[in-house]
Design a protein that fits this description.
By secondary structure, this protein is α+β, with helices and mostly antiparallel strands. The protein has six helices and 14 strands. Helices cover about 20% and strands about 30% of the residues.
């Protein structure tokens, strides 16, 4: 049996070619290599039929291959709650261990003026970092002062739809920024082109890796060993104990 070792820089070189495959063919590389930002507005359809305008912004940076565009380093969504008009902001921050933003945003929902976020880990390193969830979501609830991660059981069953633009390739972002406000119908139509089941609706049951190529659930299991990622096992544990200073 071959023990797989992925020192931090080496692993990035391996995974740099895989974003389109391992993230449901969703290219998250921004078109701006200088790390500048892009912003636009989206019309979000809520579970009760109401719509809400959200402001979205991206900035680019982090590790990437020479000649390749920088990935999304930070992703932010802000909006006013429908009933109280209180402004709420959620941010997917950069993380050094994965070299890019932690999450991709999938949905924003509101119940009794309490906002909820549905996100998915950003590629395989993030998927492993956040516990390899299946279905591959991470849920957040705003508790009045900040965002708290919650379990699938705590996430209201009323919420079923993916209502945020998922595909954030450079040309698509440029088109949305040029539109100013992206209507809900256009977002729904664009999202329907993605075939992974976790992007069609908010799933409540685990996904089988077989037959779902491109889904995060097919990611190889990796562990963070203080200074790099590697497959589970005693060999790698000892290797990184000696390597990580």
């Amino acid at each position: 049996m071959i023990n797989k070792i992925y020192p931090f820089k080496a692993l990035w070189s391996i995974l740099a070619l895989l974003p389109a495959l391992l993230s449901g063919c969703m290219s998250l590389a921004g078109s701006n290599p200088l790390g500048l930002g892009t912003s636009w507005q989206e019309e979000v359809l809520l579970h009760d039929g109401r719509t809400m305008v959200v402001d979205r912004s991206l900035s680019y940076g982090g590790r990437h291959e020479i000649g390749q565009p920088a990935p999304i380093k930070k992703q932010t969504v802000s909006f006013k709650l429908p009933d109280s008009s209180k402004t709420v902001i959620w941010t997917s921050e950069y993380s050094e261990d994965i070299g890019r933003a932690n999450f991709n945003l999938l949905a924003v929902h509101v119940l009794n003026d309490i906002p909820f976020i549905v996100a998915t880990p950003n590629l395989c390193l993030s998927y492993n970092k956040w516990g390899r969830p299946n279905p591959p979501y991470v849920f957040f609830k705003f508790n009045g002062t900040g965002w708290q991660q919650i379990s699938l059981k705590e996430f209201p069953t009323e919420f079923k739809t993916i209502n945020i633009a998922i595909y954030l390739g450079g040309p698509d972002v440029a088109e949305m920024a040029g539109m100013g406000l992206v209507p809900a119908e256009k977002i729904q139509k664009a999202n329907q082109e993605l075939r992974q089941p976790e992007y069609q609706t908010i799933l409540r049951e685990p996904i089988k890796p077989e037959g779902n190529f491109g889904s995060s659930v097919t990611c190889e299991e990796l562990i963070w060993y203080k200074c790099g990622w590697g497959a589970p096992g005693e060999f790698n544990r000892k290797y990184f104990e000696q390597t990580c200073k």
